[in-house]
């Protein structure tokens, strides 16, 4: 994941060995796959290609090029102002989740459409399903409370042959629910995954965007750049990340047979003790905390299960 600062750029360290993005961006290959990226290229102080990561159009074009070049997507875009996640970081998460399943299969990652994955908060971008379908052939259900995201994601799936077979989008009509109203009676998933909103209010989300832009070479925010980092439902919720995850865990305990593994990304390390207490209260039989590298920062995935290992293996067989 190539930086745009004047410091000597290096390959990202400690990424998963299967992650296609462990080296610097190959801009010539990306431009060949997606020529519209070329006008956004500029030279850093070392004379190397980069883009302006504070420019939403440039970031969106780079993400499109990565998805086309590495994952065979023919058409990809997002609505104005919606979340444009970093593809390498999403890939990193999925490879670690694949290893979680492999741990139940003597080290072999289960592949194919029998492996059903539920994403809570799929958004309009569909990056997790795109990578998961391309790398492992997994079948996804993408749930979201935002009708625009569900409509956009559905049209995106229809426009791409591989994704059309491997992604079904469902609207969560009750924002207070996570799995209820989405998981059908008797339906079972190998995994559920989620990247929860971590701000407690719109003001906090805006402040976070301002800090991010300031770190990108001191860029002065405009209305466009303030909005390109995500819609309200993608960035904040009442109670922030901690409140969101408390509800997610509580509801998973009521539908404990819905998934072999329930998982979520956790941005704030300080939330881990409360998460562990919630999981203990929910009587999860196994809990894992997986440290991951997202380029210039560390993050983590928390995974929990209510089934035995033998029972979990039957979810994708």
Fold and architecture overview:
There is one protein chain. The protein is α/β, with parallel strands linked by helices and 317 residues long. The protein has twelve helices and nine strands. It has helices spanning 27-33, 56-71, 87-102, 127-136, 147-158, 161-166, 202-215, 223-227, 232-235, 240-254, 272-282, 309-313, and strands spanning 42-43, 49-50, 116-120, 139-144, 167-171, 189-194, 259-266, 286-293, 298-305. The strands form two sheets. Strands 5-4-3-6-7-9-8 form a seven-stranded mixed β-sheet, sandwiched between helices. It has a two-stranded antiparallel ribbon with strand order 1-2. A hairpin with a 4-residue loop joins β8 and β9 (298-305). The longest helix is centred in the first third of the chain and has 16 residues, at 56-71. Residues 1-12, 204-210, 221-228 and 230-236 have low confidence and may be disordered.
Labels describing this entry:
two-stranded antiparallel ribbon; alpha/beta; 9 strands; 317 residues; 7-stranded mixed β-sheet; Rossmann fold; single chain; disordered N terminus
Layout of SSEs?
Blueprint: H1 27-33, E1 42-43, E2 49-50, H2 56-71, H3 87-102, E3 116-120, H4 127-136, E4 139-144, H5 147-158, H6 161-166, E5 167-171, E6 189-194, H7 202-215, H8 223-227, H9 232-235, H10 240-254, E7 259-266, H11 272-282, E8 286-293, E9 298-305, H12 309-313
Parallel strand pairs: 3-4, 3-6, 4-5, 6-7
Antiparallel strand pairs: 1-2, 7-9, 8-9
Helix pairs in contact: 1-2, 3-4, 10-11
């Amino acid at each position: 994941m190539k930086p745009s600062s004047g410091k000597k750029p290096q390959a990202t360290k400690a990424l998963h060995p299967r992650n296609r993005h462990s080296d610097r961006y190959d801009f010539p290959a990306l431009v060949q796959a997606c020529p519209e990226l070329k006008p956004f290229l500029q030279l850093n102080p070392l004379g190397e290609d980069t883009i302006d990561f504070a420019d939403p159009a440039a970031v969106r074009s780079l993400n499109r090029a990565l998805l086309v070049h590495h994952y065979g997507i023919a058409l990809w875009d997002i609505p104005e102002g919606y979340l444009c996640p970093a593809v390498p970081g999403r890939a990193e998460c999925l490879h670690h989740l694949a290893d979680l399943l492999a741990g139940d299969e003597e080290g072999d990652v289960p592949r194919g459409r029998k492996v059903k994955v539920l994403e809570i908060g799929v958004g309009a971008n569909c990056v997790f399903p795109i990578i998961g379908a391309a790398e492992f052939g997994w079948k996804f259900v993408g749930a979201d409370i935002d009708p625009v995201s569900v409509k956009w994601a559905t049209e995106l799936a229809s426009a791409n042959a591989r994704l059309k077979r491997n992604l079904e989008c469902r609207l969560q009509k009750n924002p207070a629910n996570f799995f209820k109203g989405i998981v059908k009676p008797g339906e079972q998933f190998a995994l559920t995954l989620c990247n929860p909103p971590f701000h407690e209010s719109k003001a906090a989300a805006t402040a976070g965007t301002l800090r991010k832009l300031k770190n990108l070479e001191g860029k002065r925010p405009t209305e466009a750049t303030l909005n390109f980092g995500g819609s309200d439902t993608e960035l904040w919720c009442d109670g922030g990340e901690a409140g969101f995850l408390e509800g997610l865990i509580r509801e998973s305990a009521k539908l404990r047979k819905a998934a072999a593994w329930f998982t979520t990304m956790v941005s704030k390390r300080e939330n881990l003790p409360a998460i562990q207490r919630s999981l203990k209260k929910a009587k999860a039989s196994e809990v894992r905390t997986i440290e991951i590298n997202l380029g210039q920062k560390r993050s983590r995935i928390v995974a929990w299960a209510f089934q035995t290992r033998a029972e979990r293996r039957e979810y994708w067989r």
